[in-house]
Amino acid sequence: MKAVICKNFGPLDQLHYGDLPDPVAKPDEVVIRVEACGVNFPDGLLVQGLYQMKPPTPFVPGTEAAGTIESVGAEVKHLKAGQRVVCCNLLNCYAEKLAINAKMVLPLPNQIPFEEAAGLITAHATAHHALKQRANIQPGETLLVTGAAGGTGLAAVQIGKAMGARVIAAASSVEKLEQARLNGADILINYSEKDLKTELKTITNGQGVDVVYECVGGDTFDACARNMAWNGRLLVVGFASGKIPELAVNLALVKGFSLVGVFWGTFTQKQPKDFGANMQELLQWYLAGKVKVVVDQVFALEDTVKALEKVMSRKVIGKVILKP
């Protein structure tokens, strides 16, 4: 089979598109013929050795895929060959075929195209886990989403609305903010033109934001930390700006807010039952039209480097998808 191989940590253009043996299912696994896989910002960090996780090399990157089951291990009873499925894995999705533990695989309704299903897992599931398990967001609360036009940012806007929040979207351009508006954002802030700290204070009448879904880091994080409501939850999701911020902990003390880490990959491993329940809810929301996947561009698997370069440049609105 063809796959994208990271032989050593380094620049994106050192990724290798080549041949690997076809995978064989262990007793508790299935082999999936991949029809589409999602591209995520952490994938680009991972292959450069810049992510929290550093797997042994060589490895195949990629955390989400959709496809058709090709073979089933002897112990797997709830899935069968020929079934349409989606899955998440810490690695191995940038390939024509994938062997994966059956617990991480879910049946895919026929109404959902493979390309959209492949983009539904990581971004939407991260936002869902963050707002549900980590923030316990309540109807009527105010949610601020930074980087609101990226894959996980748009997902957080949609899911925040589905959970009854008043959503403030912050992004760096008119085009990005328009996409956030189309996906349900109530209030828009262009932080390339206006001071985020000042705007948040004005919008909330100085009361602060209940929940912040923070994907950017750097100065954006600092502005959020200074505009938290009492009992607020500041969710640490990522650092797309490239700058990992430091928290002035006295702000958490005097404002009475919580800093809450969100690491979805570990959540799927530590709490697989909660992950499965979350995904079932997401699929139902998709079928009901409450959430959707905005596909920015589809690349051939052999063009993975170009796809990752686009994602890492922060020029994507929605999701980039790879197609073997």
From TrEMBL:
Enzyme class name: oxidoreductase
EC number: 1.-.-.-
Transmembrane segments: none
SMART domains named among the record's database cross-references: PKS_ER
InterPro entries to which the protein is assigned, alphabetical: ADH-like_C, ADH-like_N, ER, GroES-like_sf, NAD(P)-bd_dom_sf, Quin_OxRdtase/zeta-crystal_CS, Zn-ADH-like_protein
One Pfam family from the record: ADH_N
Molecular-function GO terms, alphabetical: oxidoreductase activity
SUPFAM superfamilies for this protein: GroES-like, NAD(P)-binding Rossmann-fold domains
Domain spans labelled Enoyl reductase (ER): 10-322
Matching CDD domains: QOR1 (cd08241)
Swiss-Prot/TrEMBL keywords: Oxidoreductase
Record Gene3D superfamilies: Medium-chain alcohol dehydrogenases, catalytic domain, NAD(P)-binding Rossmann-like Domain
Name of this chain's protein: NADPH:quinone oxidoreductase family protein
Species the sequence originates in: Simiduia curdlanivorans
